[in-house]
Amino acid sequence: MTFMEKNIFAEIIAGKIPCDKVYETDTILAFYDINPKAKIHILIIPKKEYQTALEVNEENFAEFGELFLAAKNIAKKLGMTGYKLHMNVGEDGGQIVPHVHLHMLSPDYNAPL
Ligand code: 5GP
């Protein structure tokens, strides 16, 4: 697996590419995955550009924590009582889009992404 050359999620944040938005705050955007691997498959991303979760550190960990808070708020909004979270970290971790994203999936998801 290799990183995409272009950060397509930056273009989505900038409104240059459309998305099916589920949730938005000043710092977070969430939208449906274009190629869903479960009945519900949402991508939760920070608006700030971090390529991978390898960039988390003592100063910015709250920004990464916001992804989990967003998942909880989205679940409430959609009436989901349980869900799965998955993150591919880095090219060697199977990540393709070079912008941090948390996959939020309904429990029928069982395959590796
Ligand atoms: P990764 O393998 O990087 O963890 O996952 C990237 C995810 O982004 C994949 O599940 C893929 O289907 C999704 N994706 C790629 N391009 C787009 C796009 O333009 N729009 C949306 N909504 N999802 C995308």
What does this entry look like structurally?
A five-stranded antiparallel β-sheet has the order 1-2-3-5-4, with helices on one face. By secondary structure, it is an alpha+beta fold. The protein has one domain (8-105): HIT family, subunit A (2-Layer Sandwich), CATH 3.30.428. A hairpin with an 8-residue loop joins strand 2 and strand 3. The N and C termini lie close together (12 Å). It has two helices and five strands. It binds guanosine-5'-monophosphate (5GP).
Radius of gyration: 13 Å
Strand tally is 5
Task: Give the names of the bound compounds.
Answer: guanosine-5'-monophosphate
Distance between the termini: 12 Å
How helical, in percent, are the residues?
A: 10-25%
Question: What structural class results from the helix and strand content?
Answer: alpha+beta
- The largest beta-sheet arranges its strands as 1-2-3-5-4
Number of helices: 2
Number of domains: 1
Looking at CATH, the homologous superfamily is HIT-like
Taking all residues together, what is the mean pLDDT? 96
CATH architecture descriptor name: 2-Layer Sandwich
